[in-house]
């Protein structure tokens, strides 16, 4: 009202008392002759106003119709406001005329709608009747019974309430018996044959329920800005409606994918000309394509055979810190099936965790709600990053009255998030809204009756993990993994040893990484078995494989650049050094990324004779861009991403997380999701992909030769890292549209030119401790006696050779980079003066074995680059010097 500055208002008697103060600036007020008995409460107006009927009785027919400009605004429709402030959609004279085109009469149709003025024309033209509800959502069910509609449309919230009622009232009955009993209730009267679900996407479970109780179900699709877009009888796109898809790169949807996916844009004869009083939003949402204006719906869809399927909602999605997109509606539909949960809304909490705010049907499930959500999330196939990490229990249901539902019954997501997001700043896992924001942090009493963590385990965790020292109640964090607190493998080993000492129970470090929560660890210590989550590996591969994008940029002659991921990693920085003379683009994450790359590069060339040539090349031919490979479009702007598509011919993927203890789920984002994004890039411009994989994918497979496609028969024998690398390999091999080369690398050893070592290598860490203590044992089982080093410079120079001859290579090739023979610890340390002892106590590592049953074949690699060398005494002296300087 304030935005429109209205001069004339037609208003219901039910609302006049509430809005009389706001209506003081209105020149003329006319009351609608509705039924006062329909409302539970009416505030009588302070003044007398004329009514519609009284004016009609006194009016005269105009002598001739007025001639109106077709562009004259005639109607402002307020949107629901479910994604923000309600917008005022302009409907002009021509739009209304288009809505009143004559049509053939049809059978009698009686419907009920919450707004008479929006979509009455087709129904009235076909001889139907429309009933208006009483204005009270609480009385809507009574109104339906009174009207007995033949057709009824409502938002998913309404249909979900019916489904929950059905489950509650028929609990314990067999399905068919329950269906027949609920049919007799006639919740929609006795004439309704078909229903429309509109306003938002609904779950298949709700549709199945409605179908089983005898209703024909149609998903309605339209907007206030465009009118209806599909035929409610057939599901086909309406005549006169033109739908297109445009790329939505920030969410990973592209028109040229198969099936074609993107943001739905629409053009109709009934389309609005824009938003009243908001030119900026109009220009943003109504776009010009080849001279025609289209409206951006904000929906992500597929269009197949003239039918539209909505698969996502752009406005609701958010990105996790791991770079994964989360679609709240998908999670809500899956978790709303949990018995006892009435309503649920997912949003991104203040601490960047997936947060669920919910209302409960039964208060007695409060104590188990987090466990129920965890269990059902896994059961419904949600990814680990999609599972809510924090629960807020609302003190009252979401209703139209409290503003948490819009007037048409849709979840008012914007208002819910605004109201509950401040509560998510707490580090508690479960928050009850009755707690004030101030005392949430101080409240030590958890709603959930969590099993007590023993004092012994609590002491171990507090002494080992600095991030939990100041958490007052250990029971607040029992649903978290130990690794959630930033611990590394050294701390995990320490915890493992303390558990052995305290409980006399053997839990090695690898097993410790498998516990999904501290609670699960405590249960294991209490004698319960560890039940591991089953992973459907074929599904993981299908999800990682990208369908071929048909966009080709081969016509660009300047496609001569190399895109390198992982140039700050140990292997990646030597690959960069080896690319001298090439045009290289490095994508690097984090702050101060340029300084980090420069510092890393200088370290690799400090002992090289022609150091100056490398520096000149780096400054003139190496471009550094801040980005993140695990994010869609590598976290880059659309402009930069498209420039890469048009200039890059080779991609080297040497990034990812190398961690032999963490499980597959924890490595998924960095090692699998990132590969999917690289695959997509290569498909879109036919780049040649060199993927630096790992020989660990062969462990337990009895495969030694350079076989390209490794079967999954042994995958459950692998650690999480090897599993993630194998799934990534399978995704690359299974994707079409580009050449690829799999480079399975073993243990990258020190650089023979600079002596630079990998500080994360367990072998280098062990050697550093030997040098610090100046004692060594060549007989003890505590030390690795055989070390499978392959010089990192040998690997990088081999890769350069492959790049130089990539046009001659097959569609898919594979090379193994392992050692021909193992280096003995004694040989590597022969240049040092060390005290030999029988036993050492400064180095403790689990699972050390001196037995290497068989070394993988490296036949292709030897043909490419010659035999893999062992380190000479001078080269050993160089890298041992480097270790002394850095430890």
Structural account:
The chain has 887 residues and is of the alpha/beta class. It has 6 domains: 60 residues, no CATH class; 119 residues, Rossmann fold (3-Layer(aba) Sandwich); 88 residues, Roll (Luciferase, domain 3), CATH 2.30.38; 124 residues, ANL, C-terminal domain (GMP Synthetase, Chain A, domain 3, 2-Layer Sandwich), CATH 3.30.300.30; 71 residues, ACP-like (Non-ribosomal Peptide Synthetase Peptidyl Carrier Protein, Chain A, Orthogonal Bundle), CATH 1.10.1200; 347 residues, 3-Layer(aba) Sandwich (Rossmann fold), CATH 3.40.50. Helices cover 32% and strands 18% of the residues. It has 29 helices and 35 strands. It has a 7-stranded parallel sheet, sandwiched between helices. α11 links the parallel β20 and β21. The longest helix has 22 residues. The chain is elongated. About 5% of the residues have low confidence.
Concise description?
With 887 residues, the protein is an alpha/beta fold. The protein contains 29 helices and 35 strands.
Fold blueprint:
Layout: E1 8-12, H1 13-19, E2 28-32, H2 52-58, E3 73-78, E4 88-92, H3 93-99, E5 110-113, H4 121-125, E6 129-132, H5 140-147, E7 151-154, H6 156-169, H7 175-185, E8 194-197, H8 204-212, E9 216-219, E10 222-223, E11 227-228, E12 242-246, E13 261-267, H9 279-285, E14 286-289, E15 292-304, E16 307-313, E17 318-319, E18 325-326, H10 328-335, E19 341-348, E20 354-360, H11 369-379, E21 390-393, H12 413-420, E22 430-432, H13 437-440, H14 455-464, H15 489-503, H16 509-512, H17 518-525, H18 537-544, E23 561-565, H19 570-578, E24 583-588, H20 593-605, H21 611-621, E25 622-626, H22 638-647, E26 648-653, H23 664-685, E27 688-694, H24 720-734, E28 740-745, E29 747-749, H25 762-773, E30 775-776, E31 786-787, E32 789-791, H26 792-804, E33 812-817, E34 823-824, H27 825-828, E35 835-836, H28 859-865, H29 873-886
Parallel strand pairs: 1-2, 5-6, 5-7, 7-8, 8-9, 20-21, 21-22, 23-24, 23-26, 24-25, 26-27, 27-28, 28-33, 29-32, 30-35
Antiparallel strand pairs: 3-4, 10-11, 12-13, 13-15, 14-15, 15-16, 17-18, 19-20, 31-34
Helix pairs in contact: 14-15, 18-24, 19-20, 19-26, 23-24
């Amino acid at each position: 009202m304030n935005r429109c500055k209205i001069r004339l208002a037609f208003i219901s008697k039910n609302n006049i008392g509430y809005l009389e103060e706001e209506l003081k600036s209105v020149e003329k007020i006319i009351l609608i002759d509705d039924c006062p008995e329909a409302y539970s409460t009416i505030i009588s107006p302070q003044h007398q106003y004329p009514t519609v009927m009284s004016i009609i009785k006194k009016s005269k027919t105009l002598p001739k119709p007025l001639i109106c400009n077709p562009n004259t605004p005639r109607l402002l429709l307020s949107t629901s406001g479910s994604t923000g402030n309600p917008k005022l959609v302009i409907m002009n004279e021509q739009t209304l005329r288009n809505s009143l085109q004559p049509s053939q009469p049809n059978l009698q149709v009686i419907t009920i709608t919450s707004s008479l003025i929006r979509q009455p024309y087709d129904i009235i033209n076909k001889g139907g009747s429309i009933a208006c509800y009483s204005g009270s959502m609480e009385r809507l069910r009574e109104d339906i019974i009174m009207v007995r509609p033949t057709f009824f449309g409502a938002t998913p919230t309404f249909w979900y309430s019916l489904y929950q009622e059905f489950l509650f009232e028929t609990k314990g009955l067999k399905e068919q018996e329950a269906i027949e009993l609920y049919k007799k209730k006639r919740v929609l009267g006795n004439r309704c044959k078909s229903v429309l679900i509109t306003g938002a996407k609904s779950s298949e479970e709700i549709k199945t329920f409605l179908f089983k109780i005898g209703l024909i179900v149609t998903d309605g699709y339209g907007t206030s800005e465009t009118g209806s877009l599909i035929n409610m009888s057939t599901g086909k796109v309406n005549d006169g409606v033109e739908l297109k898809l445009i790329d939505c790169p920030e969410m990973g949807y592209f028109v040229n994918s198969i099936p074609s996916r993107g943001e739905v844009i629409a053009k109709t004869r009934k389309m609005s000309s824009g938003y009243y009083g908001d030119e900026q939003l109009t220009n943003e949402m109504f776009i010009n394509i080849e001279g025609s204006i289209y409206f951006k719906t904000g929906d992500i869809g597929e269009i197949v055979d003239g039918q539209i399927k909505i698969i996502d909602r752009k406005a609701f999605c958010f990105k996790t810190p791991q770079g994964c997109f989360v679609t709240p509606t998908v999670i809500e539909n899956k978790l709303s099936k949990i018995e006892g949960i009435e309503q649920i809304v997912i949003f991104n909490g203040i601490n960047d965790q997936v947060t669920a705010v919910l209302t409960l049907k039964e208060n007695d499930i409060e104590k188990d709600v987090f466990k129920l959500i965890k269990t059902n999330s896994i059961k419904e196939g949600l990814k680990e990053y999609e599972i809510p990490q924090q629960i807020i229990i609302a003190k009252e249901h979401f209703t139209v009255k409290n503003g948490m539902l819009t007037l048409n019954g849709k979840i008012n997501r914007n208002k819910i998030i605004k109201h509950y997001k401040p509560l998510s700043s707490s580090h508690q896992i479960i928050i009850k809204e009755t707690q004030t924001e101030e005392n949430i942090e101080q409240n030590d009493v958890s709603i959930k009756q969590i099993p007590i963590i023993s004092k012994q385990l609590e002491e171990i965790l507090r002494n080992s993990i600095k991030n939990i020292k100041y958490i007052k109640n250990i029971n607040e964090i029992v649903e978290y993994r130990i690794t959630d607190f930033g611990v590394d493998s050294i701390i995990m080993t320490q915890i493992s040893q303390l558990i052995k000492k305290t409980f006399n129970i053997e839990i090695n470090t690898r097993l410790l990484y498998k516990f999904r929560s501290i609670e699960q660890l405590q249960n294991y210590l209490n004698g319960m078995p560890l039940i591991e989550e089953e992973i459907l590996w074929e599904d993981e591969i299908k999800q990682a494989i990208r369908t071929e994008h048909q966009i080709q940029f081969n016509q660009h002659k300047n496609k001569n650049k190399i895109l390198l991921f992982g140039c700050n990693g140990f292997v990646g920085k030597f690959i960069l050094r080896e690319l001298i003379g090439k045009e290289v683009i490095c994508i690097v994450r984090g702050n101060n990324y340029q300084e980090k790359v420069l510092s890393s590069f200088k370290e690799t060339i400090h002992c090289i004779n022609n150091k100056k040539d490398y520096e000149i090349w780096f400054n003139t031919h190496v471009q550094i861009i801040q980005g993140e490979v695990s994010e869609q479009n590598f976290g880059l702007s659309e402009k930069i991403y498209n420039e890469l598509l048009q200039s890059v011919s080779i991609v080297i993927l040497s990034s990812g997380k190398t961690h032999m203890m963490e499980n597959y789920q924890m490595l998924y984002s960095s090692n699998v999701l990132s590969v999917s994004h690289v695959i997509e890039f290569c498909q879109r411009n036919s780049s040649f992909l060199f993927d630096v994989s790992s020989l660990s994918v062969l462990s337990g497979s009895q495969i030694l030769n350079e076989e390209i496609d490794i079967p999954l028969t042994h995958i459950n024998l692998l650690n999480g890292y090897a599993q993630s690398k194998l799934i990534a390999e399978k995704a690359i091999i299974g994707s079409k549209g580009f050449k690829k080369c799999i480079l399975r690398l073993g243990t990258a050893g020190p650089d023979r030119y600079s002596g630079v070592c990998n500080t994360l290598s367990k072998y280098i860490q062990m050697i550093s401790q030997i040098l610090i203590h100046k004692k060594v044992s060549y007989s003890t089982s505590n030390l690795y006696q055989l070390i499978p080093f392959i010089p990192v410079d040998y690997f990088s120079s081999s890769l350069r050779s492959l790049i130089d001859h990539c046009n001659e290579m097959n569609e898919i090739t594979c090379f193994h980079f392992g050692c021909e023979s193992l280096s003995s610890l004694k040989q590597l340390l022969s240049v040092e003066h060390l005290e030999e002892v029988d036993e050492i106590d400064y180095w403790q590592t689990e699972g050390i074995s001196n037995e290497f049953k068989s070394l993988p074949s490296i036949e292709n690699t030897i043909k490419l680059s010659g035999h893999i060398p062992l380190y000479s005494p001078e080269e050993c002296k160089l890298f041992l010097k480097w270790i002394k300087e850095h430890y």
